[in-house]
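Quick bug: Tripartite tricarboxylate transporter substrate binding protein output formatted oddly.
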Amino acid sequence: MTSRAFGTLPRFTRRAVCATGLLAIAMSSQAADYPTRPVELIVPWAVGGGSDAVARAFADVAGRNLPQPVIVVNRPGASGSIGHTEGANAKPDGYKLTLVTPEVSLAYLQGIGKTQWQDFNYVARINADPIALVVKADAPWSTLEQFLAHVRNQPGKTTVSNSGVGATYHLAAVALEKKANLEFNNVPYIGAGPAVVGLLGGQVDATFATTGEVGVHVQGGKLKMLAVMSDKRLKDFAQVPTFKERNIDLQLGTWRALAVPKATPPDVMATLRKVVDKAVQDPAYREFFTRQFLGLVNEDGDKFRAVLERENAFYVDIVGKLQLGK
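Here's what came back:
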């Protein structure tokens, strides 16, 4: 726009153009200095679960690669919707990040929350794990077949904990019920951490979770894994069969991705992207994921959006078939 053309605009329009230009300059300047104060990382789940562990590991390494600390803030409830909504509606300045999980799609499709996966811009996916069926080490079932036979003999009585109604682990339980003609007594908790604690404490008979939540307990002899919903056996638990091996074609998992509100400046996203790249090269960060049996991933946010589109279509189909929610 030339200065002559600008001069012919009405006064209120000129003011609006100037204000917009000044705002853009201000945001660009702020982004260049980012961050100048602590950054919050919202976790839509309770303390003690896999999402919490991933978030705290990332926050630790990020704080060592930024001039300001990254502080984890847990916002559990409503199948992740409380935390996801807060994160999506935050000011797009990079000072409130969100560790997004698949429930951002699942909760919306079931009428639990209003926030969708499209409401975020994604920096990177940083973790992915398959779901496993787990019982206590002293449980009377040593195989998946024995457990399923027990459930069939007592329909509706076998208690199975999950991370919340409509969450990924609840979906895994319902999908298995449909596939194997079973009926569980599904018991929702406020997150995977509390759900696993419920199993350890004998409050329930089984749970669905990932190796990130139960791997240490399985290796420590407190829990045993009966089967995993992956396409092949896991390296660290090679003795555990897949559901597919047992003629139940179920492959379900979870993931965690670092996301920001839409309209977050590209410079801020670029800074966060660099932090993720540095994190996966950090020996302590990598060792933590290995020690906790968590799947370490570094997938660029733009590429991850294609995964989200395909996954959302899958969830639309399965939520409809299982008649969940709405």
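Actually, after a second look the formatting is fine. The mean pLDDT is 91. Closing.
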